[in-house]
Automatic annotation (TrEMBL):
Protein name: PUB domain-containing protein
Domain of life according to the entry: Eukaryota
InterPro entries xref list: PUB-like_dom_sf, PUB_domain
Gene Ontology CC terms, in alphabetical order: cytoplasm
PUB domain segment(s): 20-91
Length: 139
C-alpha cells in the first residue's frame, strides 16, 4: 500500500510525463538491483548527495516516499567529521535498506507497480531494466 500511495503522490503532483518517466525508471533500477544482487550492499545505500537521486527521485513528490515504503530508512553516515557534515549536509546522510527490513516479495510487488506506472507515463519497455539471469550452478 505504501508503494502504491507514493506513486499516487507522484502522479497527483502533475509532473510532466517525461520527467515522471525518469523518476519511475530510476526507481525501477533501484528495485531491480536489489533483486539482482542480494549480497551486494551498494544498492542498499543511496547517498542523499547522489546527483542522480536528487535530480531523478528526490525532486519528485512521492519519489523518496516510494523507497521508504520499500524499507529504506534515513540514516547518518558514520565517519564524517562535524565540519564536513556542516559543509555538505547531504553528504552525511543516506537512505539505507537494512537486511532485516528487506522483503523480496514486497520488492517484486513494487516492481510490478513501477512497470504499470511506466506504461502510464509512456516509458519505453526496452529502456527498463530487466532481471539479470542467475548464474548456472557449478557442476
Amino acid at each position: 500500500a505504501g508503494c502504491a500511495a507514493a506513486l499516487g503522490r507522484l502522479r497527483a503532483a502533475g509532473h510532466f510525463d517525461a520527467a515522471a518517466a525518469q523518476c519511475v525508471l530510476t526507481l525501477l533500477k533501484y528495485a531491480q538491483n536489489l533483486l539482482d544482487a542480494p549480497e551486494d550492499p551498494r544498492p542498499r545505500s543511496i547517498k542523499y548527495s547522489n546527483a542522480a537521486f536528487q535530480n531523478k527521485v528526490a525532486a519528485f513528490q512521492g519519489g523518496e516516499d516510494f523507497l521508504l515504503a520499500l524499507g529504506y530508512r534515513r540514516e547518518q553516515l558514520p565517519g564524517l567529521l562535524s565540519h564536513e557534515a556542516a559543509r555538505d549536509p547531504l553528504g552525511s546522510s543516506a537512505l539505507v535498506l537494512r537486511p532485516e527490513a528487506e522483503d523480496p516479495h514486497l520488492i517484486r510487488q513494487a516492481l510490478a507497480l513501477l512497470h504499470a506506472e511506466g506504461d502510464a507515463v509512456g516509458l519505453d519497455p526496452a529502456a527498463r531494466p530487466r532481471p539479470r539471469p542467475k548464474p548456472a550452478a557449478a557442476a
